[in-house]
């Protein structure tokens, strides 16, 4: 393919000679798209692709804007490898690009271009003598199949891009199913606002057991949402909706207060700990510190009884902002757990600054550690790392006795998983504690 970058004022221009801030805007792309739709014949379609660089803001914050600009420059050079003289590339925002593909006969033709873009971005970007992998998401919409106007086509491509990002897919071609799913999300978003008032929310608890002594360490609090007409809505469905709508802040406060209230009913409550999951966005809210202190005071709970869990990837996404708040929590005596450890992107330079008290090995490693040598090595490494930093290490996803025994031999501190107990409603968990302590 030829590699010419076009704009509305010049039929051919190279990214090497065109400064990044002079590339087309969203308005320019819409104007060009509108003109091409008018000129199109019935047997000649086109496609609009929206390409999003994931976690670009994180890269800018951590490594600086100069490296970010260098990444964009090379990114545009790679796009040139897959566009033709008749195609148009426009920068739509800090990390989003629009591409008009001409003479697209069908969806398969558009997908071929998408796969070429994905393929050319797989090779790490060498920036400042270091390799950086870039993850991208692509949304695609076709004329005339999905829309016959420029704005409509852009909206369909935006919906496809949103579906790709929410569905953790590399790309998505617009489909009515994606549109229907989005309407479903909007419906849940509206209903989630009243879930607490309608008494639809509850907490389930999954026990955490000390491997050395066999004693109950505590439990992880897991939010559940049960509607009258649909039954339980999976957390992996409504939590992302709460994140995007901002409702996650209210939900987190509800979980926090409910867990600290219910722990008072646990047998031997003062020696047990309850873990509450915290999203990265909640850690950006300065008022959350006051909310935690107030909840501890209201329910007369010692700070040592509370553990705040945050995933490794969420923490690294906005490391500097999260770090200060986590340090304050640790100073209060609250535990800090890094969840899904080993699946994120943190290096030792980040890890050594995290004020953690606990590491949780991701279940994807624990579940297969007896059958997969690499998973066993990862689990062993995390346990050794935690020990060297004086941290507790929790293995989640313990599904059988053999895995539990192997973890005990490796020096793992705490186990959590279906072999020990599934998550259960509060009333059942209180009875479970009594039965477990009686038998141990």
Structure commentary:
The protein is an alpha/beta fold and 440 residues long. The chain has 2 domains: 20-174, Reverse transcriptase/Diguanylate cyclase domain (Alpha-Beta Plaits); 185-439, EAL domain (TIM Barrel, Alpha-Beta Barrel). Helices cover 44% and strands 21% of the residues. It contains 16 helices and 17 strands. It has helices at residues 26-39, 56-63, 65-80, 107-120, 150-166, 176-192, 235-245, 248-262, 287-298, 312-317, 319-332, 348-351, 363-366, 373-388, 401-410, 426-439, and strands at 46-53, 88-91, 96-101, 125-127, 130-132, 136-143, 171-173, 201-210, 216-227, 231-233, 273-277, 306-311, 335-341, 358-361, 392-396, 414-416, 424-425. It has an 8-stranded mixed beta barrel with strand order 8-9-11-12-13-14-15-16, surrounded by 4 helices. The chain has a 5-stranded mixed β-sheet with strand order 2-3-1-6-7, with helices on both faces. Strand 11 (273-277), helix 9 (287-298) and strand 12 form a beta-alpha-beta unit. Helix 2 crosses helix 3, helix 6 crosses helix 7 (235-245) and helix 8 packs parallel to helix 9. The longest helix is centred in the middle third of the chain and has 17 residues, at 150-166.
């Amino acid at each position: 393919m030829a590699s010419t970058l076009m704009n509305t004022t010049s039929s051919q221009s190279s990214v090497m000679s065109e400064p990044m801030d002079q590339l087309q805007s969203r308005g320019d792309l819409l104007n060009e798209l509108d003109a091409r739709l008018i000129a199109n014949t019935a047997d000649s379609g086109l496609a609009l692709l929206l390409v999003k660089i994931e976690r670009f803001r994180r890269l800018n914050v951590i490594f600086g804007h100069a490296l970010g600009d260098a990444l964009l420059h090379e990114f545009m050079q790679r796009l040139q490898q897959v566009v033709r003289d008749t195609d148009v590339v426009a920068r739509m925002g800090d990390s989003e690009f629009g591409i008009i593909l001409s003479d697209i006969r069908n969806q398969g033709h558009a997908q071929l271009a998408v796969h070429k873009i994905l393929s050319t971005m797989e090779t790490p970007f060498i920036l400042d003598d270091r390799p950086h992998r870039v993850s991208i998401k692509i949304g695609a919409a076709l004329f005339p199949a999905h829309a016959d106007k420029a704005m409509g086509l852009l909206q369909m491509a935006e919906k496809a891009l949103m579906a790709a990002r929410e569905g953790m897919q590399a790309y998505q071609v617009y489909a009515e199913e994606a549109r229907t799913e989005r309407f479903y999300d909007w419906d849940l978003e509206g209903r989630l606002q009243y879930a607490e008032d309608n008494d639809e929310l509850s907490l389930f608890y999954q026990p955490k057991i000390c491997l050395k002594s066999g004693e109950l360490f505590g439990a992880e609090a897991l939010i559940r949402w049960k509607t009258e007409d649909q039954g339980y809505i999976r957390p992996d469905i409504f939590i992302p909706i709460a994140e995007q709508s901002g409702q996650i802040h209210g939900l987190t406060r509800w979980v926090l207060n409910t867990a600290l209230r219910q722990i008072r009913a646990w047998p031997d409550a003062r020696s047990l700990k309850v873990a509450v999951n915290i999203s990265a966005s909640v850690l950006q809210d300065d008022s959350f510190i006051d909310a935690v202190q107030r909840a501890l005071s209201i329910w007369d709970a010692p700070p040592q009884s509370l553990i705040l869990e945050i995933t490794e990837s969420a923490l690294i996404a906005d490391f500097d902002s999260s770090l200060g708040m986590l340090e304050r929590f640790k100073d209060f005596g609250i535990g800090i757990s890094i969840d899904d450890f080993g699946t994120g992107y943190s290096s030792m330079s980040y890890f050594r600054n995290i004020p953690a008290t606990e590491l949780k090995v991701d279940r994807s490693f624990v579940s297969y550690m007896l059958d997969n040598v690499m998973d066993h090595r990862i689990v062993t490494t995390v346990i050794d790392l935690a020990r060297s930093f004086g941290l507790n290490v929790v293995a989640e996803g313990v599904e059988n006795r053999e895995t539990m025994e192997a973890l005990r031999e490796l020096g793992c501190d705490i186990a959590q998983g279906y072999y020990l107990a599934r998550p259960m409603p509060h009333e059942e968990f209180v009875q479970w504690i009594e039965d477990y302590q009686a038998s141990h």
